[in-house]
Each structure stands twice: as C-alpha cells, then as structure tokens.
Amino acid sequence: MAASKQKEEMQTNSADVALESHDPTDFFESEISRYSANLEADPEETYQRYGFTLFHSLPPAQMVLENKKLGFYRGDAIDTYNMAGLELAKNNIEGGLELLEKSYKMDDSLADAAHNMAVCYERLDRKADALKMWKRFLELAEDEEEIAPVEAHLKELQA
Questions:
Q1: What is the dihedral of CA 32, 86, 136, 139, to 10 degrees?
Q2: Which of 38, 43, 132, 149 has fewest C-beta within 10 Å?
Q3: Of 116, 113, 94, 93, the residue nearest 105 (C-alpha)
C-alpha cells in the first residue's frame, strides 16, 4: 500500500508542476478561441455547452455580430456606432461614416462618434466637416490626455 500511495503522490505532484508551468492567460485565450470558432461552426451547440460564460470575452467585432444574430440588436446609438466600427475595420470609410452620422443623430453626446466622424471626414478630404467634428469632440471630451493632441491637430488643420 505504501508503494501505491507514493505513486499516487508522485502523480499528483507532477500534475501540480504541469499546472504551475501552464500560463493561465494562454489557457483562457485558447478557450476564447475555441468558443469563438465553435460559435462560427455551430452556435446552438456552443450555447448549449458553454452558455454565455465566455460571451463578453469574444473579440468586440464578433460580439457585436453575435448580439445582432441573437436579436439583442436594438438599433440605438451605441449599436449603430458599433456597426460603424465593423465597417471601418473593413476599411469601408463611406459605409462607416454613414453609420457614425446616424449614431450621432440619435445621440449627439457621443464623443467617440464625433472623434471617428472627424477622422473619416479627413480621410474623405472633407476638411470643413472634419473641423466641425473635431471642435464638437473637444466640447464632449473629458479626458485631458485626449484633448491636447486634438487641439494641436486642430491648429495644424486650420493653418
């Protein structure tokens, strides 16, 4: 019995060493990747297996699309802003700008929408619109670290 107990302790110790050497971040990232891939392949089975335990850990673009698929899309300013982000990620500046403008019309207090609209206007060589949105962003911005670079950029644009 002593040999059996010793063997059991050795197995437990080797398992502990294996767990200690395993980076939990890698494990979490691999689980998110598996969850994400499973959602693409078979959403129903994935939700049965995992539920929503990892849903909010999905990459933002995938979470936005999943929300829409699941019927959680409200079409409000934030949802529209998030859909704009998906278009901009595909380098669809015009499509992204259209959604940003729609989002901003729904809620003109969204500083991030104003900021991204200004960037889009610049990329589309619409300087007057860009200046207007940069100024609006400065009215809405609360973080001093964001304000100083935008003020400097605004001076460059107006020069």
A1: -10
A2: 149
A3: 113
Task: Retrieve residue 149's tokens.
Answer: 């670079």
The runs of H, that is alpha helices, within the chain are 2-21, 24-41, 43-50, 60-69, 77-89, 93-106, 111-123, 127-140, 144-158
Tens digits of per-residue pLDDT, 87-104?
999 999 999 999 999 999
Q: What's this model's pTM, rounded to 2 decimal places?
A: 0.69
Cα–Cα nearest to 107, from 78, 84, 73: 78
d(C-alpha 64, C-alpha 73), whole Å: 8
What letter does residue 76 receive in the DSSP assignment?
S
Q: What's the CA gap between 143 and 145, in Å, rounded? A: 5
In this predicted model, what pLDDT tens digit does every residue of 29-52 receive, in sequence order? 898 999 999 999 999 999 999 999
What six digits make up the tokens of 25? 């971040």
Contact 84, 72 (CB under 8 A): no
- Quote the tokens at residue 114: 């104003």
Q: How many CB atoms lie within 10 A of CB 80?
A: 23
The answer to whether 117 and 97 have CB atoms below 8 angstroms apart is yes
